[in-house]
Amino acid sequence: ERNTSSITIKGVTFDSAGLGLSNVDGNTVAAGFQDNASVDATVDKINAGLTKLRAQASAFGAQLTTIQTRQDFTTNVINTLQKGSDDLTLANTNEEGANLLALQTRQQLGTTALSLSNQQQQAVLRLFG
Q1: Distances, alpha carbon 45 to alpha carbons 3, 17, 50, 65, in Å
Q2: 8 A C-beta contact, residue 26 and residue 33
Q3: How far is the C-alpha of 71 from the C-alpha of 65, rounded, in Å?
Q4: Is the pTM of this model over 0.70?
Q5: Are 31 and 25 in contact (CB under 8 A)?
Q6: Where are the beta strands (DSSP E) in the chain?
Q7: Does the CA dihedral 71-73-76-82 come out positive or negative?
Q8: Vertex 77, ends 73 and 83: CA angle to 5°?
Q9: 20 to 30 Å CA-CA from 24: which of 1, 56, 80, 87?
Q10: Closest by alpha carbon to 46, among 26, 30, 24?
Q11: 53 touches 19 (CB < 8 A)
């Protein structure tokens, strides 16, 4: 209501450099996939990159849940306010007419009761007067 809640989601760049991967040069004998150590090092880099991707996906998932919860809350508040606004502006004329008639009947009964009470007091006073 007072704009005191916020969430900041930072983007990430997960290209080959962002994941710590580089091109493999197979032109030289010692480079590329020429020996087991090179293959193992490349596999380790790929696994580390996958771990980064999974961690970031988990973080984005948690932030998405928070955003969806806030969106649901905001939607419910909007619906509640809209219903209240509709109730104030879209009065049922039959119901309001019945309420007016009931109030008029009560007023007439009150006036009649006061008149009868006043007549009874005058009759009692006539007995003593």
Answers
A1: 43, 11, 9, 31
A2: yes
A3: 10
A4: no
A5: yes
A6: none
A7: negative
A8: 145
A9: 56
A10: 24
A11: yes
The predicted-structure confidence for 78-102, as pLDDT tens digits, reads as follows: 999 999 888 777 777 888 889 999 9
Tell me the two tokens of residue 94.
Answer: 């039959």
CA–CA separation, 124 and 120 (whole Å): 6
State the Cα–Cα distance between residues 95 and 98, nearest whole angstrom. Answer: 5
Q: If you ran DSSP here, which 8-state letter would residue 31 be given? A: S
pLDDT tens figures, 14-47: 888 888 888 776 555 456 677 888 888 888 999 9
Residue 54: other Cβ atoms inside 10 A: 10
Give Cα 114 to chain centroid, integer Å. Answer: 55
And the tokens for 34? 């020429």
Instruction: For residue 18, give the amino acid letter.
Output: G
Query: Whole-angstrom Cα distance, residue 84 to residue 77?
Result: 11
